[in-house]
Specification:
Layout (H helix, E strand, L loop, with lengths): L8 H9 L2 E7 L6 E7 L1 E3 L11 H10 L4 E7 L3 H8 L2 E7 L2 H13 L5 H5 L14 H15 L2 E10 L5 H13 L12 E14 L5 E4 L1
Antiparallel strand pairs: 1-2, 1-5, 3-4, 4-7, 5-6, 6-7, 7-8
Helix pairs in contact: 4-6
């Protein structure tokens, strides 16, 4: 399982700033797909867990220092956990919704605000002319254009369930909670699994149907 030599800066920015991603898993041998919205944290090569020193662990640590990881937590009695145990190949979809969210909030605040035409006309009068378009219409157009202009990244990787009694489990659990304090609800109890996904490649697409691959 080789790691990508590098990931583009815009993908790294997405990984570092987004709070959620969509995790795709697939059962085996039935090949039934499942998608889940997940809290996560991104682990760059310089933050990868380093086991206690030994010849074997030193070799593993050196190899891992070249890789990018995603850390998530889930209950063991879930479909995605069973899928990961049966089939560790997973995909994640990550998208920057920040701009769209800001525009959506603006849309919400403006939807109850009369347009200039509405404030000067009775409902019995003719609709506003083309010279006075609705601000809400403009806002919706802006929202659509902004959303389409955002970049989405699909990353493929291999998922690994971590032993809950291991130092590695504790390390990554703390890293996950640092990034997402509200994820604590998913790390409570004895039925919890921390999942580490080693990223192996990325596919980046834009609204012009341009796609780039990074291995």
């Amino acid at each position: 399982m080789s790691c990508p030599e590098s990931l583009p800066e815009h993908v790294l920015t997405l990984l570092k700033t987004s709070k959620y991603l969509h995790l795709a898993t697939c059962s085996k041998p039935e090949c039934i797909p499942s998608v889940s919205l997940m809290n996560y944290t991104y682990i760059s090569p310089d933050r990868v867990y380093t086991p206690k020193s030994s010849p074997a662990s030193s070799s593993v640590a050196t190899s891992n220092k070249k890789c990018h990881y995603i850390i998530m937590a889930t209950q063991k009695n879930t479909e995605k956990y069973e899928n990961i145990i049966q089939n560790p190949q997973v995909s994640v979809l990550i998208h920057d919704w920040v701009t769209a969210k800001k525009l959506s909030l603006r849309k919400s605040s403006m939807s109850n605000t009369p347009t200039p035409a509405e404030s000067t006309q009775d409902s019995s009068e003719q609709p506003p002319s083309a010279d006075h378009p609705s601000r809400l219409l403009n806002l919706l157009q802006e929202l659509n254009q902004s959303e389409l202009s955002q970049m989405s990244a699909t990353l493929r990787g291999y998922a690994e369930h971590l032993d809950s009694f291991s130092d590695e489990f504790n390390y990554y659990e703390q890293e996950l909670l640092k990034a997402n304090p509200d994820a604590r609800v998913y790390t409570r109890g004895e039925n919890v699994s921390v999942v580490k996904v080693k990223l192996v490649n990325a596919k980046v697409s834009d609204n012009e149907n341009n796609t780039k691959f990074y291995d």
